[in-house]
Amino acid sequence: ANRKLYFSEVISNPADPSSPTNFYITVAGATPTLFNPNNPPAIVTTQGSVEDWVIENRATERHEFHFHQIHFLLMERNGVPVAPGDQQFLDMVDIPYWSGNPRDPYPSVKVCMDFFGTDIGDFVYHCHILGHEDNGMMAIIRVLPSK
Fold it and tell me: By C-alpha distance, which of 31, 43, 63 is closest to 123?
């Protein structure tokens, strides 16, 4: 499977710049939703799957993609393959901020997610910056047992 996810954020009340910022991590095509532990999984996959995920940062501040339970292989930064010596298994990767200019591409990483391990069930992925995670930038993935 190939998936695209993105980080985004908006001020909760644009008429009041002192209102809190809402932070999102969203699967492309879905509606941005603040994290709630009662939300259904944003992604469902099966043990034994290997997936390529492109994760974009559509916000004007950096975000750190973090995944619980498995490590992923960093493949590309901004569409450019990572040198073989720099490809490594990670559980967190930094994605620089977007310029805010609509003509500029969103910064991104491409990672290879390997669900071959023994971990099944519901896990979270999120921005590893605590204030972002705590203000909604987290989602659930469900890994189903292999058939």
Answer: 43
Question: Would you give per-residue pLDDT tens digits along the chain (147 residues)?
Answer: 999 999 999 998 989 988 999 999 999 999 999 999 999 999 999 999 999 999 999 999 999 999 999 999 999 999 999 999 888 899 999 999 999 999 999 999 999 999 999 999 999 999 999 999 999 999 999 999 998
In 3D space, the residue among 63, 56, 61, 65 whose CA is nearest the CA of residue 141 turns out to be: 65
pTM, to two decimals: 0.94
Give Cα 71 to chain centroid, integer Å.
13
Contact between 59 and 99 under an 8 Å Cβ cutoff? The reply is no
Give me 59's structure tokens: 């916000």
User: Which DSSP symbol is given to 102?
Assistant: T
Q: How far is CA 7 from CA 21, 39, 82, in A?
A: 13, 18, 21
DSSP-assigned letter for residue 97: P
